[in-house]
Write a structure and sequence with these properties.
The complex is a heterodimer of chains A (350) and B (321). Chain A has 350 residues and is α/β, with parallel strands linked by helices. Chain A has a single domain, classed as Rossmann fold (3-Layer(aba) Sandwich). Helix content of chain A is 39%, strand content 10%. In chain A, the strands form 2 sheets. A 6-stranded parallel β-sheet of chain A has the order 2-1-3-4-8-7, with helices on both faces. A two-stranded antiparallel ribbon of chain A has the order 5-6. In chain A, helix 6 links the parallel strand 3 and strand 4. In chain A, 55% of the residues are buried. Chain B has 321 residues and is of the alpha/beta class. Chain B has 2 domains: 181 residues, Thiamin diphosphate (ThDP)-binding fold, Pyr/PP domains (Rossmann fold, 3-Layer(aba) Sandwich), CATH 3.40.50; 127 residues, Rossmann fold (3-Layer(aba) Sandwich), CATH 3.40.50.920. Chain B is 38% helix and 21% strand. Chain B has 11 helices and 14 strands. Chain B has a 7-stranded mixed β-sheet, with helices on both faces. Chain B has a 5-stranded mixed β-sheet with strand order 9-11-10-13-14, with helices on both faces. A two-stranded antiparallel ribbon of chain B has the order 1-8. In chain B, strand 2, helix 2 and strand 3 form a beta-alpha-beta unit. The longest helix of chain B has 15 residues. Classes of the chains: A alpha/beta (350), B alpha/beta (321). Chains A and B meet through helix 5 and helix 6 of A and helix 3 and helix 4 of B.
Chain lengths: 350, 321
């Protein structure tokens, strides 16, 4: 059972990846702070009755989406899971639109068609998840299949949880990607619980070991280290673009909140939460950047100001027009493929 | 024009699309080197190569799921289910991922899923089904069901060029039994119903193989003037054409080869009850397969499927009403 945490490859002043400049490392912190701050504020809005339905967050898992998404180029494509808000932020989705999404408002990414975290902004190359997990593994594999067929140097990435590894689509996607040697990255976000079910009731073999039997590489990474996640994803992407096929990255992390807002997670031993609290991904990145001489408090203040402004903007926006509820079931015009997203990593600056 | 079987017309449509649009690819089990279980893609592998005529693993969910992924990055995949029955294994990807994608996030999913369907040849419970109603009930998916060689080609062009997921129901019983004149060029058949025969005393509404059963059953029905309406498209359903036939004929028999409960014909009957009631001179009559799995043995199977005698009898009874 994969409960041991891989050590960070490096700490302190030096980045865990030689490909990260200081500005990139600050960007990673900023993305994680934005994710945590947006989700924290959204939880308050939920308790105030302004966010309908339920609310799911990724507290404690911010590094998994931040680090992985940061390694992707603008022309790459992403299928994003529900605890991966940092991926959306890195691709260029504004916090105001995310708040509007949570509140079911017209300016949300889905215009109120979809709830909470079930979204993807097609304009920045993202496809939103469906609740049947891990369906998007196959969609990501299909994107990669098209890239490979057309000889394009592009890559697809998707995230999914430990519970997902029990479903057939996990195996179909792993097998298909292995058979066709697809340029796809599968990020298994092992946060120890699928709702209330612990990993020892989910699988008898650490899923990272399954990669080998499907014919490709599986690596275990400290999912609470954004820079380690970045580096593992960067390497996987290089491999994909070189025609060497998929990679399964198992990101070891912990779901520090309940499955959703209603869940008090009584089923999780307190010691387990306490232990993981010492490995907080944001605190880790902040400590590194402080050592490197960065004014972390200033970054925090900037993020807070950005979130304050975004909440006000979203609250000022209208709810969707009820008369539009039946519109858009079918595409009436030309099918427009996914657009390119933002790729802030300096390695992709053109 | 060429005289083609229903099956040859499907092949011709697919081949034309592969030749004219490099975004089009076909994928499925045994469709490449082998040319498909029914030989629809015979010779394609040699002409278009292993990428565009893709032999896939035996994994229907993956066929649909990867087709969705390829479609949203610009491809036009055409998936073959070896038998329509196997779409149950790809149901989730089709209904939840493809069908809801545009409504949820404005992202079009231009995929066509070919579904060889229907019974009448001792295929048994897992090679004889007509699953079209499953997808009529799922928002965001179009469903077409050609009955002639001409429509088999034209509706395939329409399906592949449509920016939405389309279930293309191709009836196995018609593959080699139906022939017709088909234009050699690409043409798109509209998603509307077709009057297969005009009449004024009664209309039989059907689609797929049942159109031919309806035509044969009513060809010489004691001198009655019987219209046959071929729906061709189930989603969208051509409500105007249905109500027009009802208003002219006033008596309606609806034939489904599918199991009766909530079948396409049930939706047609509901439509007529809601909006055609004043035009009726008798009860809406349905002929459909009872809600039973399709059995293997010929006398058992024939006892269930609608046939010429059952349709003729239903029409006679209604005419006498």
């Amino acid at each position: 059972m994969a409960t041991d945490i891989a050590q960070a490859t490096a700490g302190g002043t030096h980045a865990a990846s030689e490909h990260l400049k200081l500005e990139d490392r600050i960007w990673l912190l900023r993305a994680m702070l934005l994710m945590r701050g947006v989700e924290d504020r959204a939880m308050t809005l939920y308790r105030q009755g302004k966010v309908p339905g339920s609310f799911y967050d990724g507290f404690g898992q911010e590094a998994v989406s931040a680090g992985a998404a940061f390694a992707m180029a603008s022309e790459d494509r992403l299928c994003v899971l529900h605890r991966d808000l940092a991926a959306h932020l890195i691709r260029g989705v504004s916090p105001a639109r995310i708040f509007a999404q949570y509140m079911g408002r017209a300016a949300g990414i889905t215009g109120g068609r979809e709830g909470n975290v079930h979204f993807g902004d097609r304009r920045v190359g993202c496809v939103g998840m469906v609740s049947m997990l891990p369906d998007m593994m196959l969609v990501a594999a299909g994107m990669a299949m098209a890239f490979k067929m057309r000889g394009e140097k592009r890559c697809a990435i998707t995230w999914f949880g430990d519970g997902s590894t029990s479903r057939g689509d996990f195996h179909e996607a792993m097998n298909w990607a292995g058979v066709q040697k697809l340029p796809v990255i599968f990020v298994l976000e092992n946060n120890q619980y699928a709702y209330s079910t612990p990993v020892d009731k989910q699988f008898a073999v650490d899923p990272v070991e399954r990669a080998a039997v499907y014919g490709f590489i599986g690596v275990t990474v400290d999912g609470n280290d954004a820079e380690a996640m970045f580096e593992a994803t960067r390497v996987a992407r290089e491999r994909a673009l070189a025609g060497e096929g998929p990679t399964l990255i198992e990101a070891l992390t912990m779901r520090m909140h309940g499955h959703a807002a209603h869940d008090d997670m009584k089923y999780v031993p307190k010691e387990q939460v306490d232990e993981w609290r010492t490995r907080d991904p944001i605190e880790r990145q902040e400590a590194r950047l402080r050592e490197a001489g960065v004014d972390v408090d200033e970054v925090r203040q900037q993020v807070k100001a950005e979130i304050d402004e975004a909440v006000q903007e979203a609250l000022a926006g209208p709810m969707p027009d009820p008369s539009s509820a039946t519109e858009g079931v079918f595409c009436e015009g030309e099918a427009e493929p996914l657009g390119d997203g933002q790729a802030p990593w300096s390695g992709f600056q053109r | 024009m060429s005289t083609l079987t229903y099956l040859q017309a499907i092949s011709a449509g697919l081949r034309d699309e592969l030749r004219s649009d490099e975004r089009v690819m076909v994928m499925g089990e045994d469709i490449g080197v082998f040319g498909g279980a029914f030989k629809v893609t015979d010779g394609f592998f040699e002409e278009f190569g292993p990428d565009r005529v893709m032999d896939t693993p035996l994994a229907e969910s993956a066929i649909i799921g990867t087709a969705i992924g390829a479609a949203v990055v610009g491809m036009r995949p055409v998936c073959e289910m070896q038998f329509s029955d196997f779409i149950s294994c790809g149901f989730d990807q089709l209904v939840n991922v493809a069908g809801k994608m545009h409504y949820r996030q404005g992202l079009a999913v231009p995929i066509t899923v070919r579904l060889p369907s229907g019974g009448g040849f001792s295929g048994g419970p897992f090679h004889s089904q007509n699953p079209e109603a499953w997808f009529m009930h799922a928002p965001g998916i179009k469903v077409v069901a050609p009955s002639t060689a001409e429509d088999a080609k034209g509706l395939l062009h329409t399906a592949i060029r449509d920016p939405n997921p389309v279930c293309y129901m191709e009836h196995k019983f018609l593959y080699r039994r139906i022939k017709g004149e088909v234009a050699d060029e690409i043409f798109e058949t509209p998603l509307t119903a077709r009057v297969a025969r005009t009449g004024s005393d009664l209309v039989v509404i059907a689609y797929g193989a049942m159109v031919h059963v309806a035509l044969e059953a009513t060809e010489d029905l004691d001198g009655a003037s019987v219209e046959v309406l071929d729906l061709r498209s189930l989603v969208p359903l051509d409500e105007d054409a249905i109500l027009d036939s009802v208003s002219r004929c006033s008596k309606v028999v609806i034939v489904d080869e599918a199991n009766a409960m909530c079948a396409a014909g049930a939706q047609v009957a509901a439509l007529i009850a809601e909006r055609g009631f004043e035009d009726l001179d008798g009860p809406v009559v349905r002929v459909a397969t009872p809600d039973v799995p399709i059995p293997f043995s010929p006398p058992l199977e024939q006892a269930l499927l609608p046939n010429v005698d059952r349709v003729r009898e239903a029409c006679r009874e209604l005419l006498e009403y």
